[in-house]
Design a protein that fits this description.
- It contains four helices and three strands, in the order ββααβαα.
- By secondary structure, the chain is of the alpha+beta class.
- A hairpin with a 5-residue loop joins β1 and β2.
- The N and C termini lie far apart (32 Å).
Length: 110
């Protein structure tokens, strides 16, 4: 029997963005990221708090990217650089990341 991959860093997933850029995220979410992810999905969180939670979550799951600066040079990924992303980029990434990590609802049997 083949063993399952049980660690979050295994098998990263590349998310292609609208302009040809990409980000790579952990293939599986670790528990600490899951706790933050729950905050991202919580509709009761105030918008100002939601921004901080979203940035914290993205910093935990993004592991690489091919972003460039104003001079066309590659910007090395770091958790600190996540805070410098523009809102449009954050929205595009979070929308796609949620699709990767959101648990599927199990159908109930009648």
């Amino acid at each position: 029997m083949d063993q399952k991959v049980r660690l979050s860093g295994a098998s990263p997933v590349q998310i292609d963005l609208s302009d040809g850029s990409w980000v790579k995220v952990k293939g599986k979410m670790d528990f600490q990221s899951f706790q933050v992810f729950a905050g991202v999905l919580n509709d009761e969180v105030k918008p100002a708090e939601q921004i901080g939670i979203t940035l914290e979550f993205l910093a935990k799951v993004i592991i690489d990217w091919n972003f460039i600066d104003g001079d066309g040079k590659i910007v090395e990924y770091s958790e600190e650089k996540v805070k410098e992303m523009d809102v449009e980029t954050i929205n595009e990434i979070i929308e796609k990341v949620i699709e990767i990590y959101k648990p599927e609802k199990k159908s109930s049997k009648s």
